Structure formats: C-alpha cells, structure tokens
C-alpha cells in the first residue's frame, strides 16, 4: 500500500500546473452503463489540453470504444459531464451532431472511405460538407495529399490502394479542415508493423501543427517507442494517467493494481522522463522532436 500512497502523492503534486492549460477534452465523473452485467465506463474523470498527443490503452472490453463513441456523440453518458473545447456535449441536440462532428477529425480502424470516389474526392468531400468553395477545395486537397504522401494517388479508387494507403486517405480526410481535435480509433489495427510506423509518423506530424490527438490503440510497440501520455482503462475504470509512459506499467504488482482500481480516477503522473523532456525542449527550443523519435531512414 505504501507504493500506492506514494503514487497518489505524486499525482497530487503534478496536477496543479496542468490545470492552468486550456482543456480540449474534459470528462468529469462520466459513466456509461449498458446494463447490469455490461458496464461501459465508470466515473471517468480526466482532461486533455490543447496540443497534447495522448494514447488510450486497455484490453478488449475495457471501455476504449465507449469513450470514443461518447466523444463523437454516437452514444450518451449515463452520468457525468463531457466538454469538448469548453462546450458541454449534452447541450448539442441530435440535429446539430453532424455539425459538431465536422469540427473534429475522426479516423476509424476500417477506414470508412467512399468506394466509388477517388482519393481526391474522398478528401474533398470533407470540405464540401462544411461549405468550402471550389477554390478552397482545389487549394487544400493537393496540400493535404502531399503531407500524407498521397500526391501520386489522387485519381486512384480505394480498392486500388494498399491498407496503409487507405488509412492515409482516412487521415487526410480527417485533417483537411485542420480541426483542433483528431480522434483515431485503432488506426493501425489492420496494418502491418512497418505500415503502422508510417501512420503514427503522420499523426505525430499533425500533432506538431497544434492539433490535439487522442489515439485508442493496442499497439504496445508504438506506445512504448513514442513515450507520450497514456490513459489506461480496465473494466471501465480509468486506472492510469501517466506522462511519458509505456503501454504497460511495470512498477506495480497485482495487489497494488487492485488497490488502485478502488481509488478515484487519477490525475496525470509526471515522472523523471517528463522533467528531462522539458530540459531538452528548453535547450533545443524549436528543433523538431520528430527526428529524435523516427530516424530518417525509417520515414515513409
């Protein structure tokens, strides 16, 4: 229990500085119950600030999909408050949900591309539904296709692309409006490891432009490599909120993990890795961290 108590004290010390940053996502006591034997999410509380890159991890059935569906208002919470960019989602009527979704980027595991439209048209569609002019579409679509490595595929149809290329189209479509928030639900779940690196590189570049990115994933290798903030769910409970973290927590045994499950949802833990990161950031200032995470010979 001593380790758990120390863990709680560290969380309390680290919480205050983060509270001053503006929140893009805020969950306060959020629960979603599907029935007496099928819980989805239980009293989850956390916030994600502007410009963060956050991984959402947990085993199958832990509540990841429920949390993502709540964020896009596919389902409604049983209790609690969800705010996105300061807006209480309960205030958004069903009629206005499509307009809300147009202001966030969403990437799905199964791509959800329009099969009868080219790469260019799939991406342009995201601009058309928001009322962009033809001039804006002609300017923006080629730019985003170059960013995502699809400049030579603009006339191809989805069935002519590899899985990795289709996911790049999905990312391009989600980002073409430069949304403040991008949600990615298992974006590498159907891809091989090498292709997965390329997709994560792309999401990282997008995050570096200022977009907040939340990625639900089972890709332990990528989470361990990127060492970003990790939210971990277990049986619907938020059991870990850690900065510069790995996929699995290595410093807690089974008994301590069980004790943590009985505690309220945690605030993010900032460990020595975060302190070192701040020192590196101050030293190199505007230098792009991308070079440190992905060597040049691994880029797509």
Core attributes:
about 300 residues; 11 helices; disordered N terminus; 6-stranded mixed sheet; single chain; disordered C terminus; alpha/beta; 4-stranded antiparallel sheet; globular
Reconstruct the topology from this structure.
Blueprint: H1 2-19, E1 23-33, E2 39-49, E3 53-57, H2 64-71, E4 79-84, E5 87-88, H3 97-101, E6 105-107, H4 119-128, H5 134-147, H6 163-175, E7 181-185, H7 193-208, E8 212-216, H8 220-226, E9 229-234, E10 237-242, H9 254-261, H10 272-284, H11 290-293
Parallel strand pairs: 3-8, 3-9, 6-7, 7-8
Antiparallel strand pairs: 1-2, 1-4, 4-5, 9-10
Describe this structure in words.
The protein is of the alpha/beta class. 39% of the residues lie in helices and 20% in strands. The protein is built from 11 helices and 10 strands. A 6-stranded mixed β-sheet has the order 6-7-8-3-9-10, with helices on both faces. Strand 4 and strand 5 (87-88) form a beta hairpin. Helix 4 (119-128) crosses helix 5, helix 4 runs parallel beside helix 6 and helix 6 runs parallel beside helix 7. The longest helix is centred in the first third of the chain and has 18 residues, at 2-19. Residues 1-19 and 282-300 have low confidence and may be disordered.
């Amino acid at each position: 229990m001593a380790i758990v108590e120390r863990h709680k004290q560290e969380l309390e010390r680290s919480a205050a500085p983060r509270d001053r940053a503006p929140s893009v996502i805020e969950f306060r006591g959020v629960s979603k119950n599907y029935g007496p034997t099928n819980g989805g999410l239980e009293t989850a509380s956390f916030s994600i600030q502007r410009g963060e890159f956050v991984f959402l991890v947990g085993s199958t059935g832990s509540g990841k999909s429920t949390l993502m569906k709540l964020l896009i208002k596919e389902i409604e919470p049983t209790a609690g408050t969800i705010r996105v960019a300061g807006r209480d989602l309960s205030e958004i009527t069903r009629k206005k949900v499509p307009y809300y979704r147009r202001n966030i980027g969403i990437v799905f595991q199964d791509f959800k591309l329009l099969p009868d439209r080219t790469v260019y048209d799939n991406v342009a569609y995201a601009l058309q539904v928001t009322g962009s002019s033809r001039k804006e579409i002609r300017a923006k679509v080629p730019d985003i296709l170059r960013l995502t490595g699809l400049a030579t595929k603009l006339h191809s149809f989805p069935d002519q692309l590899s899985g990795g290329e289709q996911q790049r189209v999905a990312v391009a479509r989600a980002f073409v409006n430069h949304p403040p928030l991008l949600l990615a639900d298992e974006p590498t779940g159907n891809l091989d490891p090498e292709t997965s690196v390329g997709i994560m590189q792309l999401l990282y570049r997008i995050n570096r432009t200022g977009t907040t990115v939340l990625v639900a994933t089972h890709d332990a290798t990528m989470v361990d490599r990127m060492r970003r903030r990790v939210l971990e769910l277990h049986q619907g409970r938020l059991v870990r909120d850690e900065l510069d973290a790995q996929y699995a927590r290595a410093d807690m045994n089974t008994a301590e993990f069980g004790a943590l499950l009985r505690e309220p949802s945690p605030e993010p833990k900032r460990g020595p890795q975060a302190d070192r990161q701040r020192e590196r950031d101050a030293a190199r200032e505007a230098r792009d961290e991308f070079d440190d995470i992905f060597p040049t010979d691994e880029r797509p």
